[in-house]
Design a protein that fits this description.
The chain is α/β, with parallel strands linked by helices. The chain has 15 helices and 22 strands. The radius of gyration is 24 Å and the shape is globular. It binds 2-aminohexanedioic acid. 2-aminohexanedioic acid (UN1) binds next to loops.
């Protein structure tokens, strides 16, 4: 099988030809660019990958209209049959795993081993929800009255508008798309506009899995246009559920917009994820976890480690080993299987990260590398000059305290703060006090510390002797506070995002039985 954007001719950046990717609406690719054009760049090679033909707000609304039209028939398809479509999508993704992973690595610079893991997460998500098509259970409920039956049914919400970020350009979209479609909804998907090649390939795989035209529509648009389009579509009654993965600042605006329409969106936002190192921790294991979650994918995950919170008695030894591990880490070409991290996703991600470094520099000593900021011939990392890619040095900041901007600011780059504590209460206060609540980890060999930490953590996800990143496809994923509104993705819990409960009562008494009557009168 050949998937457009993955294997076809004319897409080789070395040839200087880039594919143009427009909106996919009603089963057809469009070639207009009412919202302008944006070319994605391989951040390791500085070569063009594909050009997004961006939609305007009207294009977004049109996609919602088409989704609305298609949804009723899709909801009428029996859920087990929808499950078979999901199964087929999973098979197609599996058959194209190598190509899709290579495309992820090319368009956003994710190390190939992690890109393959990301594609595997899509396959696992399809496998999980394919079976859910046969288990979309409702309940039978006992009635207060004789000769009466009560039932509950899950019904699709309608049209879901899904807006996702580019750092997980296939796994995170699949967390929304797969269950939303399985539950009988139609979808308008707005991928990151800077990943058009991936968006095209992914859309094709879904379409070829057997989705009827109009059930999945993909629209590339910039942030402002997407917001205006969403707002207009909500005003027109064309969107019933919003799913958004991105920054907390934008999440607040989406939440306000949805709230005005009495909708409860699914918001998966930022994180400032802590990793607590107790005095009885296996320090090598903790260093390994901190290295992976702090610097893997160059810190560009919502679950990336923000601050290590280490007991004062092991602080110096932890920092010595952590610093050595960071110095030894391989950073470079993401097509190599042994790199810890590759380039920043795009020039915009690098610029934002450098802004955070500028805030930190005057107040802290920066450790952990031969330099800080962008890796260049003038600021190399050993003999690695970064050229022509956009790479950043890994940075450790010791001596972080709760008043520091770094303690409460998500940086989305390769920087990790280190704070110290004396008592368990101090450790949990630091682990919870930054305002986010996505993921939190503790390294300890004392079970009671692990359980107490879990009880007290404000995070939606807690790890014991494991890093802050690496969610599995069937556990609830999501956060609290500035990390989200408590909505959860993945696993059976996500069904509550994409269905609504409907109850039914059936009275066969042959006379009017009134509910809420005093039972003594019966
Ligand atoms: C995100 O960064 O938006 O747990 C999601 C993890 C990933 C998902 C991160 N599987 O690290």
């Amino acid at each position: 099988m050949t998937v457009a954007g993955v294997r076809e001719e004319g897409h080789d950046p070395a040839m200087g030809t880039t594919r143009e990717v427009g909106a996919y609406i009603g089963g057809k690719w469009r070639d207009d660019a009412a919202g302008g054009r944006l070319t994605s760049i391989d951040p390791a090679r500085d070569t063009p990958v594909a050009t997004a033909l961006l939609a305007d707000a009207g294009g977004f609304v049109e996609a919602c209209h088409v989704a609305r039209e298609a949804q009723r028939a899709w909801a009428a398809v029996p859920a087990p049959v929808r499950g078979r479509v999901v199964e087929q999508i999973g098979r197609l993704v599996e058959a194209n795993k190598d190509e899709l992973a290579a495309l992820v690595t090319r368009e956003i610079g994710k190390p190939i081993a992690e890109s393959r893991g990301e594609v595997q997460e899509v396959i696992d998500t399809c496998a999980f929800f394919a079976g859910e098509g046969r288990r979309l259970y409702g309940q039978t409920v006992p009635s207060e009255m004789p000769d009466k039956q009560l039932f509950t049914f899950r019904v699709p919400v309608g049209v879901a508008a899904i807006v996702t970020a580019g750092n997980f350009p296939v796994a995170v979209p699949s967390w929304y798309l797969v269950p939303a479609l399985l539950c009988g909804n139609a979808v308008v998907w707005k991928p990151a506009e800077y990943t058009p090649a991936i968006a095209e390939a992914f859309t094709e795989l879904f379409a070829r899995g057997g989705l009827p035209a109009g059930v999945l529509n993909t629209v590339l648009a910039d942030g402002r246009t997407t917001f205006d389009g969403l707002s207009a579509a909500l005003d027109a009654g064309l969107v019933d559920k919003i799913g958004f993965t991105g920054s907390s600042a934008v999440g607040v605006r989406i939440g306000e917009l949805a709230g005005r329409h009495l909708q409860n969106p699914c918001l998966e936002l930022g994180g400032k994820n802590p990793l607590v190192v107790m005095p009885d921790a296996d320090l090598d294991l903790a260093v390994e976890g901190a290295l992976f979650s702090g610097f893997g994918t160059a810190g560009q995950r919502c679950t990336s480690l923000g601050t290590v919170i280490v007991h004062a008695s092991v602080h110096d030894e932890f920092l010595r080993r952590f610093d050595a591990a960071v110095r030894d880490a391989a950073i470079g070409d993401p097509t190599r299987s042994d790199v810890l991290y590759g380039p920043m996703i795009s020039a915009r991600f690098l610029a934002n990260f450098e802004k955070h470094l500028d805030l930190v520099r005057p107040h802290h000593t920066l450790h952990g590398s031969t330099g800080t900021g962008r890796i260049t011939p003038a600021n190399p990392r050993g003999d690695f000059t970064g050229e022509p890619g956009i790479y950043a040095h890994p940075t450790i900041v010791d001596g972080v305290v709760a008043d520091d901007a770094l303690y409460r600011t998500e940086t989305f780059g390769p920087i990790v703060g280190v704070a110290t504590f004396e008592t368990f209460d101090e450790a949990t206060a630091l682990a919870n006090g930054h305002g986010y609540g996505l993921s939190a980890a503790i390294y300890t060999s004392t079970p009671v510390h692990a359980f107490r930490f879990r009880e007290r953590a404000s995070a939606g996800m807690v790890s014991v002797n494991n890093s802050t990143s690496g969610a599995e496809a069937h556990l609830p994923f999501g956060g609290n506070g500035r990390s989200g509104n408590g909505s959860r993705q993945s696993g059976i819990w996500v069904l509550d995002q994409f269905t609504r409960w409907q109850s039914m009562n059936w009275d066969y008494a042959g006379k009017l039985q009134k509910a809420q009557m005093d039972t003594a009168e019966l």
